[in-house]
């Protein structure tokens, strides 16, 4: 085991829970798990958790996958294949499989770790950082590990500080003045305030730090309990709060910001509206999420593509993008783009307009199309003259229109529309 003078992150592993579908993203997760959904033009949602771990100094990682995992597994193989075992670095993708007899699937978040105990054992680590693979944020896990060791906690739980009226959507911590968790409540109707501000509450981020030896024993006990749902939030965390020492770690203490005065940034992009807004926010003059920070980069698979290209300079046929992000490989041919985000290898054609739209990679937008406040899935071909975002009732006949008026367009939707109109 490494000596006590090494960074705690070098004696830790990250276990990323990435098996969920993310059903509130609707058709965006029909063919991929939520952690594999594109974000910010070229990265995937899971890249944030993995990049945080890598930037924090963690070089041993495991990713538990389950729902429609192929896209996620392929991305991890292509974008995260630089770990070298001879340097004591590992990244293992762990699809649900019949490893322990009986169930094939992970039946809960804790069961996902329990089914892979032998693999975690092989890493020879002291600490395990359990992460959700489906949130957008930048965080230094070394600081959370340090608090965990300093307080002698059985579990340290990453927490957001949110207004009490918003906390009912989360698991909420009631803590004392030393940040020890007195009670853990799942989506309470009347969340408790914090000791320093009764109007704010501590909400769980789904990030947990354990000593591996402690968690290992707890997982074995939980697996033998027929009444357990084998879930961290429902079973293990309440048990530790009641019988051990659980401590809250405030996200504001370890959030990575390029501007010290900026607000701590964390987003759950779990709905079409939230996904659209978080992407569009990146086109702001000074986005809250800094993707340009070289000191804390978001690593991903980078395709070898040429720079973006803008062509034509005629009235109403000018290739231009204003307050927008355009990824590599795009060809903007006589298209007006405003407040939009385009993924890799998007091709747009003359007289088209994109306004407040999030376009995933490999989309083609044909002539005279007008797309306002849309999310367009990967690989879609937008037919010539299609207008979306001006008549919500007409849009809702063919596409999914969200509560806040964002229209999601997939190729299946367009194919059904074409068949019905032909």
TrEMBL record:
- Domain of life where this protein originates: Bacteria
E.C. numbers: 2.7.7.27
UniProt site (Could play a key role in the communication between the regulatory and the substrate sites):
66, 105
Enzyme class, one word? Answer: transferase
The entry's keywords: ATP-binding, Carbohydrate metabolism, Glycogen biosynthesis, Glycogen metabolism, Nucleotide-binding, Nucleotidyltransferase, Transferase
Amino acids binding alpha-D-glucose 1-phosphate: 106, 171, 186-187, 204
Mind telling me which PANTHER family this protein's record contains?
GLUCOSE-1-PHOSPHATE ADENYLYLTRANSFERASE, GLUCOSE-1-PHOSPHATE ADENYLYLTRANSFERASE-RELATED
Q: Give the protein family.
A: Belongs to the bacterial/plant glucose-1-phosphate adenylyltransferase family.
Segments forming domain Glucose-1-phosphate adenylyltransferase/Bifunctional protein GlmU-like C-terminal hexapeptide: 306-409
Alphabetically, the GO molecular function entries are:
ATP binding; glucose-1-phosphate adenylyltransferase activity
Which source organism does the UniProt entry give?
Aliiruegeria lutimaris
Q: Which InterPro entries has this protein been placed in?
A: ADP-Glc_PPase (IPR011831), ADP_Glu_pyroP_CS (IPR005836), GlgC_bac (IPR023049), GlmU/GlgC-like_hexapep (IPR056818), NTP_transferase_dom (IPR005835), Nucleotide-diphossugar_trans (IPR029044), Trimer_LpxA-like_sf (IPR011004)
What is the purpose of this protein? Involved in the biosynthesis of ADP-glucose, a building block required for the elongation reactions to produce glycogen. Catalyzes the reaction between ATP and alpha-D-glucose 1-phosphate (G1P) to produce pyrophosphate and ADP-Glc.
Question: Know the name of this protein?
Answer: Glucose-1-phosphate adenylyltransferase
* Record's keyword annotation contains Cell inner membrane: no
Catalytic reactions of this protein: alpha-D-glucose 1-phosphate + ATP + H(+) = ADP-alpha-D-glucose + diphosphate
